[in-house]
Amino acid sequence: MKWLLDNSVFLPVVMGSHTEHATSCAWLKRARPDGWGVTLETFLGVVRKLMNPVIMQGNHLTALDAIDVVRLRMAGNNPGKIIIGGQPDDALLKKAQGHGQIMDFYLVQVARDTGMKLVTRDKGILATFPAIAVYPS
What we know:
Oligomer: single chain
CATH architecture: 3-Layer(aba) Sandwich
Strand order of the largest sheet: 3-2-1-4-5
Mean pLDDT: 95
Largest sheet: 5 strands, parallel
CATH class: Alpha Beta
């Protein structure tokens, strides 16, 4: 397995109205044969966003429907896997400069520990971890 998707790539794949939907789906279509997955945290984060009435502009889903939508996007030829990360690496996480980086650094850790590349649009992750993080182009 080669690719670990973060929320900035996986949410647009799942959410058809997202501005990056077409480009994210096109990237994933090319990458699927290499193997791909999301962490459990990313899976649940996307479910949470699909249930949020503000993000979904009043068209939010129930928990069951949101889970079904996410699972459907992970299915098919070369299906995605849910990757369960290990214990947080304190040496890596303590480098976080703010609360918003904790999950980002954990995703970097999971990608590193599983030999995967983290696929993200997050410029900070891309700049800080160029050996692990890649932009979906």
